[in-house]
Records
---
Amino acid sequence: MTYQLAQLNIAKGKERMDHPLLAEFVENISRLNALAEQADGFIWRLKDESGDALAIEAFSDPTIVINMSVWRDVETLKNYVYSSDHLAFMRRKKEWFTKLESNHLVLWWIPKGHIPTIEEAKEKLRHLEEKGSTPEAFAINQPYEPN
């Protein structure tokens, strides 16, 4: 069976996304999403009817935003995250987001063609929090090969 890499990334805004403090981040999210969609290895990302995921409330806290996507493998995801314009915004995350006490990023392997659900992603995040990196759910700096 062929596998692809799913990822969930959550962030807790210092304010809601419509607050002026987050304006620069919000103004650039479409550009960063387009950059991801054009990146080598990109397969899919979670989005609503507007093409965005910022309005999707996956948690009871409305300041928590999610990003969920599927990639060919860990390397292509890392290339986008650390070797594109995305990195400049990641370096500025303290301007817009508060530090979470728990894990904010989880990766896991899915069968090719599977589209992960938000509930599936939240379960993977819980798994990582409770058990640490395992082949079922892992951190980007502790990757596992698909089994």
---
Amino acid sequence: MKNIAQIRAQYALTKVDEIKTNYNELNNKNYKSFVAGCPTMILQNGLGQALAFWAAKSKLNLGKKEGQILEVIRGWFGRPENPLKLESSDCKDFIQKLMQKNQNEFVLFQKETLLMLEWYKRYVNAFLDDKEAETNGDD
């Protein structure tokens, strides 16, 4: 039986594999740098503010780095193994349901997000490319 840390690690590795397979435009140094800063953004601004910022930047487009991190976080809370399971149909639905939580619950969601992102950040750093992102003028 796997413990929750192992399950987080497995989930994070799966999501990195999905980036390499389905979102090659994110397989670069720019995405690695962005992901490295995500936990800091959450700690400085709070989970709600970070999610709102990423939603505004990405317009919930999964091909954008901000949209992808939203989906990684949303997907983690949709997993049956996650003790803080929160089913949602998309990122907007996830944010709406999360905002309905009381303060104590919300803090637990923020802590769990940070724990999962530590694994995700490690795997992104280990397995994604160090090439520079191709600039297309919309970043």
---
Amino acid sequence: MFLKKVIFTVIFTFAVVSVFSGFVLPAKAQGISGDISKQLGAAAGSSGAGFAAPQDPRTIVMQIIRVILGLIGTVFFALTIYAGYLWMTAAGNEEQVTKAKTLLFQTVIGLAIILAANSIVSFGVKLAMGQSSNFDNGVGILPAVPNVNYAPY
């Protein structure tokens, strides 16, 4: 009985909506490109949208990869906190301590892999962009820029 009332209410609602939707007048679409141009001109002004200069796609890819690696690193950090929580709340349960140790070991290995991946991506993008480093001293530090004063006086 209740199901029949629900079905009747749904059908009646759709019928009423479909009847009254015929009374809505359609909007006119004539001359809409002129209106759009006026609105865009008012919003952007003479300077345009004000976006920055275009960026190198390699830099954009590096930024995306760094954000993804940062999110994955956050997940590993949360897993490390969870493993510590499991260990601290084990209350002598050896099975739970073993599970926490295993999870902690896995998260440390995963975090090391993520840090290595971040270093490799950063190094690869620097090479692709032609930013060479000074590897003669073994640490890859760029040489110091000489302090030259170009002022006429």
---
Amino acid sequence: MNRCKPSWNALVFVALCAVLAPAAAQEPIQTQNEAALGGRNFPQNTLRGRFMVVNSPEIQLDGQPERLAPGVRIRSAQNMLVVPANLTGQNLLVNYRRDPAGQVNEIWILTPDEARAKRASADKPLLNFWPFVADTGPRDDGKTPFDQLPRYGQ
């Protein structure tokens, strides 16, 4: 039993949505293709380090004391979520990302195949906001005379 007949406007709207939906799709996230070596795809600004939970949320990254962000996501080598308390005392090789406050908010425990893949961003500084840590362009070492500093538009 049909209670309402489809109107012409509704059919045109559905057709337009079907045509325009692929055009409105977002750009894919840039990744470093570690999947080619049998691993997962990690975001481009992911760092690598040695990770150990001391007493959650206190951790050590490469031997330095750090702090986990509230709502941190830790993924095991099988890509399943792990509770930080289950990893206490284990020294693991991981890929990780930081939030804008500098706290670690995403961690991926690596498989042996993923560990063999070299991270392009492993030598980046503490906060991995690429526009603020770009290695290109002139730098001031503090000893450059004022008249030799780069000017706006150079």
